[in-house]
Amino acid sequence: MKITYTARKVNLRDNFKERAEKKLKKFERLFSEDAAVNVVVTLEKNRQTVEITVRDNGMIFRAESTMDEMNDALDKVVDILMRQIRKNKTRLEKKMKSESISDFVMANFSDSDAEDESDTEDDEYQVVRKKHIMIKPISVDEAILEMNMINHNFFMFINAETDDVNVVYRRADGNYGLLEPSAD
Asked: Which residues of the chain have pLDDT under 50?
């Protein structure tokens, strides 16, 4: 795995990087050597945010946590990543060539974790609502305006400039994001 660190408004110490590498080493069996791991640490108002994104073979795992201490946030993010892998282990076994996902899950989760996560063991996702919407070509600004008017956190539309289906969404920091389709 190739680990990249990004620090925003904070200086990363070597002991943090060593700790992150030690914790991420647990995931080496699951991902290929070409897996790209991006660790972003941000300091805002005396709160440390650690975000880890793992990209491997077209799959993306992402987790984020904000705490008073950088190391606590790192521990929480690694736990969230483990839960994501555990929750989706059946699908991952089908998609990845690694036969050790079950071994990994068993080695990294205690029985109490399994009890806490028992409702997420389902092999199938359940769609509880299906909604048909009419989408029309509009600008990104118009899409954000419509999203705000209906008080949603996202809005799907056809981008008038590109004729592609796009999604605008409200980010946790209050800004907006745009999802555009890409073949890469």
From this structure: 111, 114-115, 117-120
Distance CA 137, CA 147 (A): 15
- The CA distance from 27 to 23, in Å, is 8
> Could you count the other beta carbons within 10 Å of the beta carbon of residue 184?
2
Please give the pLDDT value at position 94.
61
- CA 169/CA 62 separation, integer angstroms: 17
Fold for the domain defined by 137-179: SHC Adaptor Protein (3.30.505)
Q: CATH assignment of 2-120, given 1.10.3210.10, 2.60.40.1730, 3.30.160.100, 1.10.8.60?
A: 3.30.160.100
